[in-house]
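thought: user wants a sequence for this fold. calling inverse folding tool.
action: design(structure=
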């Protein structure tokens, strides 16, 4: 390999390394929001609800503060971090734009937490934090809009006239991710407008109940659900050895999702839940999740229970949607809505992140594997057991059907908290004690993948994974 090739490879590896470091920052921040204002606050809210036998004694701002920290602070930080990591970037844009976006986003989520929980200068902090989050998402979209698919570059003849060819249709997984991104933009826009409104004329620092219900539909089904569907359609065929998604059925599920969200926003709640349930049940079939795989699942470096937990997560999605129909028809005290929301946020979204995260996050962040397969399994087991107890006991307790269920709720919270902390610990141990896939090249301040220090990226887990996933 001549000198020019070596230095261009080194520059490429350096870029990859910077992107990995930036991703680590997003993930570390997401974990802090998940563990502290997210789960610990959720847990203490649950203890308060269980001891008062109802939601009425708890300030709505605390419940909403917990939801914001989980959805924006944890899920949002992970999505933005992975989104930036997946975008090809040149020169200083590798770090500068993601760093500005990161600072705005983190400051926005952090300020919202302080304002929601402590009420400190909330009239000023609500619009400032929501504005920072909105600008961060707009910057992310700006960066993403510069990135063209290889087919689009070829169609535009940017890779040379000989490569000019017909534009191919966008893969369905990408459509789902774009829908989720549109949901993210709508969610931060909605949040900004309502925070401004509260700051000027609001009597308290919480969204009114009816409006919050619509906002939750957008968060859950407009942002998180299509995003997870998209990444599942992209990664699961390779990871689980199942066929590529059924395009027509997945498009149908996405249409149902969009329609359901629109009906939810319009206030046609029962209709919305029926449509969303149709989409939620269809997606499992569209992804062929319950068919016999054509090969072995790829579980090298992760716990072999991985395929089972992925399938359980999609079962939770159906449970969440069916509980939604029950809630729309019969909920009196928030117990059925709470169970439905929890089945979706913890049973589906958090389980998918706890399952796929250990498979991809170490590689993307520059490590070979997750630190401990056993910790991965125990975190999922604790989360699942807690979620099962919570979802089954919440309607019984809140709706006054069976009072013993109040005693089960704290146990469910403790199990979920343990699951979350084990997941966080595993990622922290991966960064502190894990084997990095980048190592310094002899006689150079630059870095190359540890496995392959001769200047070629081929064979490095980072390169392999990126080639497979981005
Ligand atoms: C893991 C442990 C968790 C615990 C103990 C917990 C606890 C709670 C509690 C007690 C509530 C109040 C309403 C109700 O009783 O249902 C709530 C609401 C909520 N939770 Fe969680 N939660 C957890 C995880 C999550 C996760 C992972 C997410 C999102 C990814 C999430 C998102 C939400 C949202 C959006 C709300 C509604 C907020 C609102 O009304 O605006 N939670 N949670």
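)
observation: tool returned 470 residues.
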């Amino acid at each position: 390999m001549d000198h020019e090739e070596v230095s261009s490879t080194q520059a490429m590896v350096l870029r990859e390394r910077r992107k990995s470091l930036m991703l680590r920052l997003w993930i570390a921040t997401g974990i802090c929001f998940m563990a502290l204002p997210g789960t610990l606050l959720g847990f203490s809210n649950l203890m308060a609800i269980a001891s008062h036998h109802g939601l009425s004694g708890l300030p709505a701002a605390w419940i909403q503060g917990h939801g914001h920290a989980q959805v924006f602070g944890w899920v949002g930080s992970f999505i933005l971090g992975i989104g930036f990591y997946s975008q090809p970037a040149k020169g200083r844009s590798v770090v500068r734009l993601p760093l500005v976006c990161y600072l705005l986003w983190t400051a926005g989520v952090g300020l919202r937490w302080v304002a929601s929980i402590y009420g400190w200068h909330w009239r000023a902090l609500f619009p400032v934090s929501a504005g920072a989050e909105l600008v961060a998402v707009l910057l992310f979209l700006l960066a993403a809009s510069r990135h063209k698919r290889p087919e689009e570059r070829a169609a535009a003849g940017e890779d040379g006239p000989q490569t000019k060819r017909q534009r191919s249709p966008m893969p369905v997984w990408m459509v789902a991710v774009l829908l989720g991104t549109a949901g993210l933009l709508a969610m931060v826009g909605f949040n900004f407008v309502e925070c401004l409104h509260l700051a000027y004329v609001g009597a308290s620092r919480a969204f009114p109940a009816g409006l919050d219900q619509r906002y939750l539909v957008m968060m859950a089904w407009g942002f998180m659900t299509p995003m997870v569907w998209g990444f599942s359609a992209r990664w699961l065929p390779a990871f689980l050895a199942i066929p590529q998604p059924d395009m027509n059925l997945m498009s149908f599920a996405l249409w149902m999702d969009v329609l359901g969200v629109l009906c939810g926003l319009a206030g046609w709640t029962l209709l919305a839940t029926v449509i969303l349930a149709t989409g939620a049940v269809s997606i499992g079939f569209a992804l062929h999740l319950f068919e016999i795989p054509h090969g072995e699942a790829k579980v090298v470096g992760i716990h072999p229970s991985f395929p089972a937990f992925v399938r359980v997560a999609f079962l939770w999605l159906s449970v969440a949607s069916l509980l939604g129909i029950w809630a729309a028809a019969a909920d009196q005290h928030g117990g059925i809505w709470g169970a439905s929301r929890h089945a979706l946020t913890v049973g589906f979204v958090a389980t998918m992140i706890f399952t796929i995260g250990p498979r991809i996050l170490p590689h993307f962040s520059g490590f070979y594997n997750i630190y401990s397969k056993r910790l991965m399994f125990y975190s999922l087991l604790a989360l699942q057991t807690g979620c099962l107890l919570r979802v089954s006991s919440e309607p019984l307790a809140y709706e006054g059907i069976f009072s013993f269920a109040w005693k089960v709720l704290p146990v469910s919270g403790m199990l979920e908290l343990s699951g979350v902390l084990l997941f966080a610990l595993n990622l922290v141990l991966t960064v502190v004690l894990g084997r990095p896939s980048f190592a310094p090249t002899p006689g150079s301040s630059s870095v190359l993948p540890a496995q392959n220090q001769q200047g070629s990226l081929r064979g490095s887990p980072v390169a392999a994974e990126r080639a497979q996933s981005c």
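thought: summarizing for user.
answer: Here is the designed sequence. The chain has a mean pLDDT of 89.
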